[in-house]
Write a structure and sequence with these properties.
Largest sheet: 3 strands, antiparallel
Distance between the termini: 117 Å
Number of strands: 5
Bound molecules: heme C
Strand order of the largest sheet: 3-4-5
Shape: elongated
Strand content: 5-15%
Number of domains: 2
Radius of gyration: 45 Å
Order of helices and strands: HHHHHEEHEEEHHH
């Protein structure tokens, strides 16, 4: 075997598709030129040099592609971290539900939970009874009687009756919505914990008998501590109005319950 083939093959002892192709090229091309061995060797060196150049270009391109992929992957992995950070920030609950004070937050909650519907006396208007803003949350007026109905009959028929939503006659007896203003006849003397117990446990004054219908404490008890505290802060801040709603009256007969 001519030395130029031997030498070029020994150079490519590490056989790769690239080296095989390159060696084959040399074997096929050289007889066509009928050159001297030295010239042929020079030519092959030239080919080899070009191969090396094209390999270098190839490596350079591969490196660029790898760099681009690397940058892309780093960006992909950093993007969710940033959005996670954003989420964490937006998950932080604003103080007082976005209101500027506990009292304003509480006023908002009392409004949307319709506490006024039952706890504020009404005045009659052309389009029915409306909460009397001068008696806000002061409960069923002490001097006002409950609806005049046959209680025994109502209880036996399982009906609940009301006129202005502050007094209710039903199978459970007669209940009157109490005063919940900041006055001492309302919740003025209550502690915050007493109020939380009242709504969470459904206990009159937070420590006495179970609350009866229609006070919907079973739903309000799902409120968070922050919400209950805000409501209490608002109730404490309301205009104090003196009024002690009539006491609860049990049903006319125990069997009616
Ligand atoms: C559907 C009518 C109704 C609604 C609405 C209502 N209440 Fe009542 N609430 C009552 C009645 C009636 C009682 C008295 C129940 C009893 O005597 O067992 C009561 C009792 C209470 C008591 C106990 C008072 C005490 O002296 O022990 C508190 C506190 C109270 N309600 C707060 C609220 C708050 C705050 C809201 C709104 C978030 C509200 N209520 C909404 C009817 C209602």
């Amino acid at each position: 075997m001519p030395f130029w083939i031997q030498s070029s093959l020994s150079k490519y002892s590490n056989l790769t598709p690239y080296s095989i192709l390159s060696g084959l090229g040399k074997v096929l091309f050289m007889p066509l030129f009928f050159c001297e061995e030295a010239e042929a060797h020079l030519y092959l060196r030239h080919l080899n040099y070009q191969n090396q150049l094209s390999m270098k270009k190839h490596y350079a391109l591969c490196s660029l592609a790898a760099l681009a992929i690397g940058i892309f992957l780093i960006q992909c992995s950093s993007a969710p971290t940033e959005s996670k950070k954003e989420n964490v920030t937006s998950e932080i609950k604003p103080l007082y539900g976005g209101f500027s004070s506990a009292e304003l937050y509480g006023e908002h909650l009392v409004t949307i939970c319709a506490c006024n519907d039952c706890h504020t006396p009404k005045k009659m208007t052309d389009h029915g009874p409306e909460p009397d803003s001068s008696l806000w949350l002061s409960g069923h007026p002490a001097s006002m009687p409950a609806p005049a109905v046959d209680r025994k009959d109502m209880a036996e028929r399982g009906l609940a009756v009301t006129d202005f939503l502050t007094a209710w006659v039903g199978p459970w007896g007669t209940t009157y919505a109490p005063n919940i203003t900041g006055d001492e006849t309302g919740i003025g003397m209550w502690s915050e914990q007493q109020f939380i117990n009242c709504i969470r446990e459904g206990k009159l004054k937070g420590l006495s008998r179970p609350l009866l219908p229609p006070m919907p404490w079973q739903f309000y008890k799902a409120m968070t501590d922050d919400e209950l505290k805000a409501i209490f802060a608002y109730l404490k801040s309301t205009k104090p109005i003196k009024n002690i709603a009539p006491a609860y009256e049990p049903p006319t007969s125990a069997s009616a319950m």
